[in-house]
Amino acid sequence: MVIHTKPRCEKKLAEYARQNGITYYLPQFTATRIYQRRKVNFANVMFPGYLFVVIDIYQKTTLNISGYVVSFIKVVDQNELLDDMINLNKSKSKKVDVLPGFWLSKGLEVEITAGAFKGTKGIVESHEKISEVHLQVNMLHQAVLVKINPKDVKVLGEFEIVEGEK
After folding, report:
1. Residue 63's CB: how many other CB atoms inside 10 A?
2. Which helix (H) or strand (E) segment is 12 a member of?
3. pLDDT digit string, tens, across residues 132-145
4. 68 phi, psi to nearest 5 deg
5. CATH architecture of 2-74
6. pTM strictly above 0.90
């Protein structure tokens, strides 16, 4: 299940879930900023406003009591969402840089053939931007961007989502 949280409350809800023994997944990436010659690293949420959980009705009630929940989103295709989350988790386990990206409704579908994301499918805007692969969570209409060596990207074909498809 996906939880839509109040703005800037993802980490607070994740901590609340942890304290109550609820399993969750909150994908994050590290951002670096420089303040007066000091380099500071921050853990930023990949998908602002969303937390991913596997819960029963009692745990749902517990999370709802927290005050951080806007709504619960039922997942229609759990396998697709799980595949998307597994792809995103590869970046965390391999310490690969991911950047905030935007969701693409059309472009080129590609497969990454080498490196940490080997076997992962993503979307690129065009042949000119083949090194910028968008790893998408289609259910949320959000994505993250991964910079890849163009020789490690194989074009699979055209990609387009038609409104009302799912």
Report:
1. 24
2. helix 10-19
3. 999 999 888 999 99
4. -100, -5
5. 2-Layer Sandwich (3.30)
6. no
